[in-house]
């Protein structure tokens, strides 16, 4: 699965906001490395009033400790922070 969001732009954040309106994680029913990649690309907690689903998601993914996230599997590519995708 390849979901592409430029999370350095309001349009990219809005696209991810729309996806997260109907799911808790980017891929499947458990967190994955894809979620970590997206949260790292977002950088700081998004505005809760503008992006309520994204803010919920960001806070949830950030709540996990490294010991847990190190065990997550890969799931998706394409979340960027404005840099050109490889």
Q: Could you describe the 3D structure shown?
A:
It contains 4 helices and 2 strands; from the N terminus they run βααααβ. With 86 residues, it is of the alpha+beta class. It is globular, with a radius of gyration of 12 Å. The chain has a two-stranded parallel sheet with strand order 1-2. About 7% of the residues have low confidence. It is 42% helix and 10% strand.
Structural class: alpha+beta
Uncertain parts: 76-81
For the record, give the distance between the C-alpha atoms at the N and C termini, rounded to a whole number: 16 Å
Per DSSP E runs of 2 or more residues, the count of β-strands stands at 2
SSE pattern: EHHHHE
Strand residue percentage: 5-15%
Q: How many H/I helical runs?
A: 4
Mean pLDDT: 84
Shape: globular
Q: Strand count, sense and closure of the main sheet? A: 2 strands, parallel
Helix content: 40-55%
Radius of gyration: 12 Å
């Amino acid at each position: 699965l390849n979901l592409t969001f430029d999370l350095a732009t309001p349009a990219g954040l809005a696209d991810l906001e729309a996806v997260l309106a109907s799911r808790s994680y980017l891929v499947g029913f458990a967190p994955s490395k894809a979620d970590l990649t997206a949260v790292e690309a977002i950088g700081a907690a998004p505005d809760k009033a503008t992006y309520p689903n994204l803010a919920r998601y960001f806070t949830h993914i950030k709540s996990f400790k490294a010991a847990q996230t190190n065990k997550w599997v890969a799931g998706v590519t394409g979340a960027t922070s404005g840099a050109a995708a490889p």
